[in-house]
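Repro:
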Amino acid sequence: MRLNEAQLFHAREPQPGLFIAESPKVIERALRAGYRPATLLVGKKDLTRDLADLDHEMAVNKTTGLGQTPIYVASSDLLRQLSGYNLLRGALAAMYRVKRPCLAEFLTKMPPIHPRIAVLESVVNPTNIGAIFRSAAALGIDGVIVTSDSADPFYRRASRVAMGTVFQVPWTYIDAKSWQAEGVSILHHFGYQTAAMALRHNTVSIDNPQLAKVDKLAIVLGSEGPGLREKTIMQSDFTIKIPMAPGVDSLNVAVAAASALAFWELGNQKAR
């Protein structure tokens, strides 16, 4: 069976599909988070060096391990002949997805005091998705909402760039049309104020003391090119920007880099 990652997403409908985890570290974090492996392809040295130790530790801790998972072992010479091996970091695992919670269920599970979440609107680059999740895990963001027209956080490249933190940070999808129609209103209903990353006449700096006083805050980041939709900006409670040097009006970098700076400032407000 030859399926690309998008086809694997739908492979078991109506059940959740499959995803590919690449590298022992990413596979380890997926296992620790409770995701079940369907099958593995492993280089000889990685089977004995990394995955054997991992399987033993999982068994000791009585968590999800490799169990009876079929493991295909190949020599380095054979792996080099396989298409795409230049992207393989020692091991590949096909793993089962789980059903993601609806937005309302997701929001009710956030911390009750001073939660900070991120909303990714149409962020289509898997590398940026991965970098955003890694920043979120490191910088105090409690959860991430991803619109369905964004790249999948479980795409192989995204989870690899994230170093497996996509399995640690709570997240869920919202249908892109539903987000456009009522997403901000739903956040407001659950007590969140929204801060859109955009440049407008009323934009405030991310270090503005007013933001620190907000009890529940959702930071909304837009696509790499056009940015946030105008409707999203208009409905948001704040528009925020990263302070620039004199004469520079915007940060000409990927959305992932901007997210790291915003998460550092806004996520760490909880500790002040």
